[in-house]
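Record DUF3899 domain-containing protein, 115 aa.
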Amino acid sequence: MKNWKRATTGTVAAGLLIALIMKVLGQPFMLIGNLLFMVGLAFLVFGAICVLAKGHLFTGWRHRRKKGQDPLPGEKIGVRHVASVKNSPIVVNPLARFGLVTGICYIILGIVFTI
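=>
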């Protein structure tokens, strides 16, 4: 995603437009607010998954070989290498930013529509 700000603005605008169309069709504000809130939670979970995907959670795991097998190619991993990778800063890529910001905007819209 090259320009996450533009995509976020478009997605939030589309959600707001759909919410206003639902109101014109006679849906209550409580239903619209609940739907926006749930979609916002889904976007937050998506953003969190994107952040965790870059977290190097499985760095340093080793596969044990069975007796008589040749050593596996990745069996010997340096302890300092694992520590440097695991202690690296958290990476929030543009897709994660899109999910997190869109989710927060939808949750705020959901609360506003509910009130």
